[in-house]
Amino acid sequence: MSDLLLLGLIGGLTLLLLLTLLAFAGYSGLLAGVEVSAGSPPIRNVTVAYKFHMGPYGETGRLFTESCSISPKLRSIAVYYDNPHMVPPDKCRCAVGSILSEGEESPSPELIDLYQKFGFKGFSFPAPSHVVTATFPYTTILSIWLATRRVHSALDTYIKERKLCAYPRLEIYQEDQIHFMCPLARQGDFYVPEVKETERKWRGLVEAIDTQVDGTG
């Protein structure tokens, strides 16, 4: 009888654990619908403090943590410049940081100095007239993992089906939502200096290779 009671207790606790995990996943956005649309951007022009990263996107967590630790009340932002399904992980480029100001507001010199002290750089992004956008609940850390797997695939499908030129891909972490935004215009204005520099280097390398091939031909 005691064995049956023990088994029943273990089974009950296991079921309770599973239900708790399912509830947590649901609260994190597991069952949330992902609606992609084209329209106005979720933010206006912004000034950001960022750090540039080249490498696997999965390694950017430390940059989010660092920028949030400097000023936890500011919104986090990330700009992803390469498709990780087409570009080798070690060549993927992104910028991660915090939004210092939006619209006509200017960031305070003290705030700029604070971020620069920790190695962040300043840059301004415009407000494009038209973007591809989607949102996802931001309630737990699991929400980020779910969003990267559900929203990005939905954006890829939407953009491909409509043959749109929408890049780079921005993530804005605002209160209880993650906003995803892909500009349909002025894309080059979202390229931080480090990205433009790598573009120049890669073009120079390709031109050098082409010259060598033509010379040997």
UniProtKB/TrEMBL annotation:
<protein>
    <submittedName>
        <fullName>TEX264 isoform 14</fullName>
    </submittedName>
</protein>
<dbReference type="GO" id="GO:0005657">
    <property type="term" value="C:replication fork"/>
</dbReference>
<dbReference type="GO" id="GO:0005789">
    <property type="term" value="C:endoplasmic reticulum membrane"/>
</dbReference>
<dbReference type="InterPro" id="IPR011256">
    <property type="entry name" value="Reg_factor_effector_dom_sf"/>
</dbReference>
<dbReference type="GO" id="GO:0005634">
    <property type="term" value="C:nucleus"/>
</dbReference>
<dbReference type="GO" id="GO:0000421">
    <property type="term" value="C:autophagosome membrane"/>
</dbReference>
<dbReference type="GO" id="GO:0106300">
    <property type="term" value="P:protein-DNA covalent cross-linking repair"/>
</dbReference>
<dbReference type="GO" id="GO:0061709">
    <property type="term" value="P:reticulophagy"/>
</dbReference>
